[in-house]
Specification:
This protein is mainly alpha-helical and 139 residues long. The protein has eight helices and no strands.
Length: 139
């Protein structure tokens, strides 16, 4: 089924003019999202890679300096606002990967290390997207 839809997208590429490029990108993005939604989970290493990348971007550190034991407040000098922005960005990033989750304020307050954040996200990402959304959006 996906290969048939890919063919349709490729046909659109040949038929479309340059002005329709954005629509083609959207179609390809939808196909990628469908493929991600069909997978059940991400590995802890995949989750960690995304988390570390985001942490590095928000707190201006190199990824070699970020480990599971890196503490947000002590090691990264993270204030509450920067930490909240980082979590919000991670929620958006994982949603783009087909996994929607929302860390509640209480959960956020309990996180002290990068490893704890990875583990918290893992509890959501190891579920299919629809189950993760259903489990968290009822509150």
């Amino acid at each position: 089924m996906l290969s048939e839809r890919r063919s349709a997208v490729i046909e659109k590429v040949y038929v479309s003019q340059l002005g329709c490029g954005y629509r083609i990108v959207q179609e390809v993005s939808k196909l990628s999202q469908e493929a991600r939604l069909n997978s059940v989970s991400m590995s802890r290493d995949e989750i960690a890679s995304i988390v570390v990348s985001c942490v590095c971007e928000f707190f201006f550190v190199q990824d070699a300096h970020v480990t599971d034991t890196t503490r947000f407040e002590d090691d990264l000098s993270a204030d509450a606002f920067a930490f909240a922005d980082c979590i919000d960005a991670l929620e958006e990033e994982f949603t783009e990967h087909g996994y929607a989750f929302r860390l509640e304020a209480k959960e956020r307050d309990e996180l002290e290390t990068v490893g704890e954040l990875i583990d918290a996200i893992s509890t959501y990402v190891f579920l299919p997207r629809s189950a993760a959304v259903g489990n968290r959006e009822h509150a």
